[in-house]
Amino acid sequence: MQAGGPDSAAISEAPSSGSEESDCEPGPEADTDTALTEEWARELLIGSGVVGPQEVRVESRAGVAGALSRVLAVTVRYESDGERVALPLVVKLPPRDPFGRLFVAEAQFDTREILFYTELAPALNRLAEESLGPGQGLPIPKCVKAKLPDEIGGDSELVLEDVTSIGYDSADFAEGLTVERARAALYAAARLHALSLALREREGPLDQRFDFLFPCERAAAGYLRLVRRGLPQLEAFLRGRTDCIEEAAAVSALSARAPSLLGTLLRPAEPAPLAHADFWSGNLLFREKDGESECIALDWQMVSLGRPMDDVALLLLSSLTPEMRRAVGESLIEDYGDRLEAECKRLGATTSGVVVRKGLKPDWPRAALRALLLCAGSVDVALGDPRAEQRLLEAVKDLHAQGVLFLKPDTDA
């Protein structure tokens, strides 16, 4: 039940839910990209405010070629004012494969993520600093350099700080998140949702100012591809088990009904905050500091207007073991709601916080079904891994028991 991949030196960019090509198997880069030269590094350093860098060199540490990008971990070493400095970075570049590059360009995945870091995140962080104080912005890596493509399919570049150098690391997907890490992730989501609600109250609907946000109609087309590929695979997996006959029949009926459900599943509800839209443990990094878990969110190619439960449900269904989800899922939703409402109050968006908090639990069936479709889109990644298979199986069983698999379009309700 995987959906995306991290922008860090803990590189394991798994298939992304944003692509119908998500069964692409990642592989290591043979060497660093030829564009990452000493001249490139010197320009980056000067652009970051380093005066007169000397003895500049670039060292490649790791790399992976995923469906949506090539992610390279590099260290830029230089000397400034007699001091030797090492700057660990993560560089995201378009795929080398022409078809993958065209897909990314047409869906604007690279453009959207670059504009998130260069336009949307700074606006949210300014609001956070004004209302909450320094260091209270989005829990994301610092953007060091960004370059938009000059033309469709052209080269883009996103350079981020490598937060693994300050103690963050990826979680073990098979083990599932601990309660503490799940709560830290949901608190990170609450910060995003609350800041975007507050900015909306100040400036109006966010898609009017930030027109690069992933539009519902484009998302619907991507989900339809996921449905057509993933649900038949999921049904076949269930039919291969003697204890899942009813669930297999429900998934079969869902496959036929799903195209008419997409509007219900994807339509934002007012007041509409931002949603990460691919919020699972593979797109998160964690560290423990002063006895507390901290979380940073990565991979913002699908950021969109949405509903908070979209991020919450995907995290709970994809990234917790079934036992953990059943034991603490409801309390984690309560914790998230408490944090969201408190953050909105601090940001001067009390009414929005109350409205959104009130709608969280009623929105679970819709958000959970959306999450299942995302997971089904990369079901082939789970198959063959006993623990991942079991997590997927138990999620389907639980959603079947809750009646989620029988959800109808709003117009049919």
Automatic annotation (TrEMBL):
Start and end residues of each CHK kinase-like domain: 158-346
Q: Which Pfam families match?
A: EcKL
Give residue spans, biased composition: Acidic residues.
Answer: 20-32
State the protein's name: CHK kinase-like domain-containing protein
Upper lineage is: Eukaryota, Metazoa, Ecdysozoa, Arthropoda, Hexapoda
InterPro entries the UniProt entry points to: CHK_kinase-like (IPR015897), EcKL (IPR004119), Kinase-like_dom_sf (IPR011009)
Region listing for Disordered, in residue ranges: 1-32
Q: PANTHER family under this entry?
A: CHK KINASE-LIKE DOMAIN-CONTAINING PROTEIN, PROTEIN KINASE-LIKE DOMAIN-CONTAINING
